[in-house]
Amino acid sequence: MTAPPVQQAAAITTFGLGRSYGSGPTRIDALADVSVEFGQGRFTAIMGPSGSGKSTLLHCLAGLDRPTSGQVLLGDVDLTRLDEKALTHLRRDRIGFVFQAFNLVPTLTALENITLPLDLANRKPDQAWLDVVVQTVGLKDRLHHKPAELSGGQQQRVACARALVSRPHVVFADEPTGNLDSRASADVLGFLHRSVREFGQTVVMVTHDPTAAAYADRVLFLADGRLHEELADPTAESVLDTMKRLDSSSAQAG
Amino acid sequence: MLKLGFRSVLAHRLRFVLCTVAVLLGIGFVSGAMVFSDTLSAALKKNFAAATADITVTPLSPLSGTPNRPPTLSSDVANRIAAVPGVAATDGQLLVPDIEILAKDGRPIDTYSLATFGASWPHDDRTAPFKLVAGSAPWGTEQLTLDRNTADREGYELGQKVKVVTPVRAVTATLTGFTTPGRSGTSAGAPLVSFDGASAQLLLLGEPGWTSIAVALQPGQNPDAVSRAIQTAIGDTVQVRTAAQVSADGESALDDTFGGLTAALLLFAGLALFVGTFLIVNTFAMVVAQRSRELALLRAVGASRGQVTRTVLAEALVIGVVGSTLGLLLGIGVAGLIQYLYQRLDLAIPSATLQVSAATIIASYVLGVGITAAAAYPAARRAGKLPPVVALRADTTVPERSLLVRILLGGFLLLMAVLMFLIALTANGLPAAILVGLATALILLGLVMTLPVLSRYAVRALMSPLGRQAPIVLGRRNAERNPRRTAATASALMISLALVSGLVTIAASAKASVDRGIADAIGTSELVVTGDGGRPFSTAVGDRLANVPGISAVHRVRQSAGEVGDQRVTLAGVSDRTLDGPITVEVTNGELGSLAQGQVALPRNLANQLELAVGKTFDLTTTTGKHRLTVGAIIEPNHQLDAVVTSLPRFTELGGGQIDATLYLEVADGTDLATARQAVLGAIQDYPSVAVRDQQAYAAAERGPINGVLGVVGALLGFAVLIALLGIVNTLALGVVERTREIGLLRAIGMDRPQLRRMLQVEAVAIAVFGAVLGLLVGVLAGVAVQHVMVDDGLSVLDVPVLQLVGAVVIAAAVGVLAAIWPSQRAARLDVLRAIATE
């Protein structure tokens, strides 16, 4: 591995992050002692078998879930010290989301969905930036359609545009291509990739698809709630190899 | 299938609580009304059974109603009945209503709207309607007895002086005895004063005669046979009834007294059930839409259409049974409470234990279960029609059915309603008002049908002033997204508010009309003398007032009942010169001078109704039979004289009693009004129930009953608001459950709790204001139309109480805000991660 030293400031840093459910003998550690940095302007993928804690990690990073131990620093803000209201406003102002499905509010048009975080914050969108984002996702002629009138791929691109429009500190994507065919997937991933390259956006994506992970600069592998390995400048093949290796090692361990 | 249904109810407790409450409220009022009226009639039956002679003979009035001067029979009739074979004894009896007993402080005792009777002392124990329990029978005009209840309540003891006011005169006499009704001695019945026979005729009637003749039979005689023999002997001028018949008639007469209360309870019941139906329809539609995948799965694993339909209906059944049971209990509670309150008031209403009849129980369950099942049926049928593939589809939303059928049907109804409205507006009087009512009902029905189409535009228009902030736009869109649901929820409020605003408009117009009518009709007379509750009073009052210094003239108006054909009319006798100024009368046609020749004057609306004109003749039936009258004048509708108007001598010839209904006093020049009023009050202080008022006070007193109506309308509004609240809470709560994922998404991308609450509030307020505004428009339209067609029948002035109506809309909006509290708390508590993960 020839991981380059991290030159940029970290967008997110975690220290000894842990998330457990239940207590006593029924206690389950979904995450245990995860310390990791996510560089600014970098596209990081998180992978791992189901139950490995990758979604829990993403939720903790994004302020949707509260870790039971450790710290999450978003820039210089410690998420674990924020109350519910502050967390909500932080998600609104500094974080962008793309979920696997059901990303859009069905009663709002594509454009209204895109500007929703800004509207909730009572902020005016930066028209030039909005135009750029819309141009990039290629939805200019579908802006006034309701989600029900858009294809799955178009809906995910609207979601991406919404995630970007407030120029968030980080965009989190949770299996953004899980429900899409390969062509639509390529569109969405290409768009996320460009946002990193062209706009310097920081993106953290959870996926189980090696092809999707190949779009990232770096892949983190999780297993049993722990950070297991990482891969810089991945290709679909190298990701697949690593996954196989992890599988067999965990099979041996199990 | 019942088991599945039952499980489903348990699994979704929350949503079914609201449906159950709706059923409960409706059935509660239905069963409350039934239990109350059963209890009352059981008590009345007990009294009548105890108080009746074997056979009762009463004069047959030519009039169907009860005139204020009772028709009488002579002692001669009693003698002829005594000669009929099988009759052991007869006893002439006198029973006269409209008596007042004065309490020790000189005020009339409060009878809580029950009539007070004066009676003659019975001669024969076998036929006595009441009996002595202490003291001795009265003798002469200086002695009387009271019923024990009244005496106890007022603290009268034997030997004390008691004042009573009869339609003939005021009497002060010594209390010699206490009575209780009937043989069984049950405490019950109206207040009763009695004198010995001859004194009773003098003091109560002012002339000889009996109001009934009680007959005792010889042992072993058949009452029916003897009663037929009496009928044959006396002829068809009398009514002959056996004890059983008297009981039955008496019950129905007394039932009428409390009919109003029962009717009010039933009105609330109707409203509750109606609104409840909407709530249930809504809930089940949502439940089926939400569970479509689960239901389709049932179909996929082999359940038939019917079975799926029945699963859903089974849930309705559980709700219906639970709601009806609780409602029945609530109803018994309500009836018990009313009875308790009456007893606390010390009201002399007959008491009996609460009667819960089989009919009440059956009606409660049939109505409760029937309405729930009927309301759930459309959704249940739709559930049965779900194709099994829905179970395999990812997207679980059921497409909205087309609204075309609704638009066509609703449009047709609206068109019909508009036509009916136009027809009604060309006519006038009560039939036209009823037509307006029917047209309004049709409009409401048509609107309920087309509301989903309207709601989209109306909600947008109504909510646009709130601005374009994200939570507001989202709330508004939520109200628009499911037009059927919004419409059904708003319908409930629309109907309630239409009812309320229509009634308020009519009542306000009635008030304004009374004011204008009195101001227009009363001319130079400055003081108006009336009896409490519109009861007539002795002519002695007028005689005395004529001699009061400062009073320059006393004008009398007497009233009695009559019939023209089968139309009931009021017959009014007016003293000379009354129409020359004290009462302002506008003559349309003919001459008022004709009254002196025995002709009559008719208000224009009455003349139109009876199709009469000046110079025509018609037959008027009064207590003394048929009389042919000639129309001498047609006058404009007059608030004080809505009657066939005659001169006083002619009034007496037509059988009208020597009792005054209203006196109009003219105050002499130079005498101050207040001084004159004091002098008048001083002259008639032993007639405490006779009131002397100036014009304003008189108008206020005349408006009094309308305030009572407004009170009921207020209660109706409060109740409607409560139920509407339930409906909106229900819709919002279901919406929150249904949109769990969407709410999770909104929370994830940064909607805070206050914004979430705002979003739900906007949706609730949109529904509430939409329903309220529409209801208000329809109600006011109906109210205005009713006033228009009744312009000659008591509603001469239109008054739309804008302030109250705006208040109603504000209340509706507040209800929306209130309704959002609980659902938004639920929504705010949703865990974001779990909400997003929800299927």
**Which structural category fits the helices and strands of chain B?**
alpha+beta
The percent range for helix content of chain A is 25-40%
Given as residue ranges, the uncertain stretches of chain B (5+ residues, pLDDT < 50) are 183-187
| Rg over CA atoms of chain A | 18 Å
Distance between the termini of chain A: 27 Å
- The total count of helices of chain A amounts to 8
Structural class estimated from helices and strands of chain A: alpha/beta
Shape of chain A: globular
> End-to-end distance of chain B, in Å?
25 Å
Q: What fraction of residues of chain A sit in β-strands?
A: 15-25%
Instruction: Kindly state the percentage of residues in helix of chain B.
Output: 55-70%
Radius of gyration of chain B: 33 Å
Uncertain spans of chain A:
1-6
Spell out the blueprint of helices and strands.
The complex is a heterodimer of chains A (254) and B (839).
Chain A: E1 10-21, E2 28-39, E3 43-47, H1 54-61, E4 69-74, E5 77-78, H2 84-94, E6 95-98, H3 110-120, H4 127-137, H5 152-165, E7 170-174, H6 182-199, E8 203-206, H7 210-213, E9 218-223, E10 226-232, H8 236-253
Helix pairs in contact in A: 3-5, 4-5, 5-6
Chain B: H1 2-11, H2 13-51, E1 55-59, H3 75-82, E2 87-93, E3 95-96, E4 100-101, E5 117-120, E6 130-135, E7 143-147, H4 148-154, E8 161-165, E9 170-181, E10 192-195, H5 197-205, E11 212-217, H6 223-234, E12 238-242, H7 243-290, H8 292-300, H9 305-344, H10 358-385, H11 404-426, H12 430-463, H13 470-481, H14 483-521, E13 527-531, E14 537-538, H15 539-546, E15 551-564, E16 567-574, E17 587-590, E18 600-603, H16 604-610, E19 617-622, E20 625-635, E21 644-647, H17 648-653, E22 659-660, E23 662-667, H18 673-683, E24 690-694, H19 695-738, H20 740-748, H21 753-789, H22 802-829, H23 832-837
Helix pairs in contact in B: 1-9, 2-7, 2-9, 2-10, 2-19, 7-10, 7-14, 7-19, 9-10, 11-12, 12-13, 12-14, 12-21, 13-21, 14-19, 14-21, 14-22, 19-21, 19-22, 21-22
Write a brief structural summary.
The complex is a heterodimer of chains A (254) and B (839). By secondary structure, chain A is an alpha/beta fold.
